[in-house]
Write a structure and sequence with these properties.
mainly alpha
């Protein structure tokens, strides 16, 4: 930000301080207008290059953050098929707040970086603007997904619990059957 402001200020300073006309220094006539234009354009190009470089850093950070938020969101969209997956997802849900803290800090830096560009009234391409905007909406999307998956997990947990109870009843019944068969073998004597 300081470098951009410095070069913009230097461009204005050169433009305002160097004369637009030629200066006579005795026998020599010095034309300052071409030097003034050259130096002014140089500082403006440097300021513009720094703004584009800053935008490049912003979009790189935004792409990285989107990738990380997307990975979390994809994990939260998985519907467990068995009790092991349910347990793994519950453990992952406990880790999500810890995963979001550094992403939120980086997202805040991204917002600060974008404010620098806004301060210089730098126009973003539509794709760059949307990418940065998407990063700002990711925490809300993940929060909504957390709410959805928690309600799904409650239903899945009840379903798996019911299935386990049914399997337990079948196991007890089968165990009783095996016990009865073992008891029938008592009547046979080893010869």
């Amino acid at each position: 930000q300081e470098a951009i402001a410095h070069h913009m200020k230097q461009a204005e300073l050169v433009d305002s301080t160097l004369p637009r006309t030629s200066i006579s220094l005795g026998a020599v006539l010095v034309t300052c207008s071409s030097i003034r234009v050259l130096l002014t354009e140089k500082h403006r190009r440097l300021a513009s290059s720094l703004k584009h470089w800053h935008l490049s850093n912003c979009t790189s950070l935004a792409a990285l953050l989107l990738k990380k938020y997307d990975a979390i969101n994809r994990q939260l969209q998985k519907i467990p098929c068995d009790i092991e997956q349910l347990t793994a997802l519950v453990e992952y849900l406990e880790k999500v707040p810890g995963l979001l803290v550094p992403l939120a800090e980086q997202s805040q830096k991204l917002i600060e970086y974008r404010r620098v560009l806004d301060g210089f009234q730098f126009q973003l391409d539509k794709s760059d603007f949307l990418q940065i905007y998407q990063v700002q909406t990711c925490p809300k999307l993940i929060s909504e997904q957390l709410t959805k998956i928690e309600s799904v997990l409650i239903i899945q947990k009840q379903q798996f619990s019911s299935e386990m109870e049914d399997e337990k009843a079948l196991f007890v019944e089968k165990l009783s059957s095996v016990q009865a068969e073992v008891n029938n073998f008592k009547q046979y004597i080893d010869i």
